[in-house]
Amino acid sequence: MALICSVSGLRFTLEDFSPELIEGMLRSFCRRLPEGTLAVGWDGRQGAEQLEEFAVAILQTEERRIHRLGIVPTPTIQTWIARRRLAGGIAITASHNPADWHGLKFFGADGLTLDATLFYREARSGGAPHPNGHQHGFHPVRWMHAQAVAEHLRSLWRPRWLRQLGERILPEGFHVVVDAVNASASSILPQLLQQLRCRLTLLHADGSGIFPHPPEPLPEHLQELAAWVRRTGADLGLAIDPDADRLVLVDETGTCLWEELTIALAMQAVLENRQAACGKDYQPVIVVNYSTSSVVDAVARTYGARVLRSPVGEVNVVHLLRQTRGVLGGEGSGGVIVPHVHYGRDALVGTLLILGLLAQKQRRLSELVAELPRPIMRKHVFARPESLAPLFEQLLRRLTPQAAEIRRDDGLYARIGNGWLHLRASNTEPILRFIVEAPTRAEVEQLEALVLPFLQQR
Predict the structure, then answer these.
(1) Which residues, 6+ apart, have CB-to-CB distance to 221 below 8 Å?
(2) Is the pLDDT assigned to residue 76 strictly greater than 60?
(3) 3-class SS at 399?
(4) Model pLDDT for residues 442-453, shown as the tens digit of each residue
(5) b/e code 117-139 from CB counts within 10 Å (16+ = b)
(6) What does the pLDDT read at residue 138?
(7) 3-state secondary structure of 337
(8) Which of 221, 241, 211 is CA-nearest to residue 95?
(9) What are the structural domains, with CATH classification, of the chain?
(10) Among 131, 141, 215, 386, whose Cα sits 20 to 30 Å from the Cα of 364?
């Protein structure tokens, strides 16, 4: 069944669309929020507007006033909720999933991501009935698209250190090629780059919702962007997923950079500025997930920072980030979280940090990347078995004698020798993900040999 609910929200294909389930989840969501206005926006993909209409109608019957934001990035919705002190909001998006997928992400006060599994369980159990068994009157809807976009852009300049970083970019005149996959960042990202006085080449930024290639910003999907960077002599290319919470880079040679490098470079930009402001004795905290490359640990050591890891999923990273008052969070898939702006992954924040780092260092992107370590990471995908418990028990018996650390709060994570491995069920697709990383190919193969036989025999 192509329907998945996790901490990352609900995702489904239209053939598995259940109006009753969606309605139940929306009502459960409303009942668990304080009174107040809700924001609703969508990522622009074709067919999602009908889902947005459906969601708005349900929320109105829950006596909620609605700020309807239209086609906007997910981080724009989160910023709007936080800045306007709304009770919460919803993004109609399946993020990086293919065009035939749709989804919902739920946000509480301050724009914080909420775990959708709670609403899912309640809806499946028949909970959250409508009060008194009937619908109440409809509250008016306010259209707030332009205001929300402007608020998001202003939020990037509010922290003093980010404003100073932006001012370093202005005289550089960077030439940037943009692939916004014709979705929610098609307008707002060019606006940001124009504010930064960049020269633009817009490749796929018409806002039509027609994806020109698979929407997940992976190197194999970005060869056209790479060719345009080479053809135009641009300084870099930016690839954004449909709801604009992930950023992947192409350097000036037209090389598609490993998505794990986005968070490492953004981290370098933040630590350069925080160290300058707070002194060398300052020990900032960075939060990433278990599946994020150890490149971040190398950058952290350079600046005396501390790296903490959480289970995969924005809600988990944000929880630990807030708990430890970290200065930066994110995930290796290209998501960057700067708490001084808002607690959510944001490709616009990532763009500002990367351009700021280029301006500050006066180096080409390829030169900055060349200074980073490049461990070997391999990612495997398997069909998800009906029960994971027996598999994990077998692997625990195999790995425990050799592991320096084992964590079980997100599948199975183990640090062995100079490397690590992470086996978990995907939050967004009906698959099992197995990731291995180590400094050398031989070490990677040794780690794979501990686990792959158990996966391949199923």
Answers:
(1) 213, 214, 215, 239
(2) yes
(3) helix
(4) 999 999 999 999
(5) ebbbebbeeeebeeeeeeeeeee
(6) 61
(7) strand
(8) 241
(9) 3-145 (3.40.120.10), 153-250 (3.40.120.10), 260-370 (3.40.120.10), 377-456 (3.30.310.50)
(10) 215
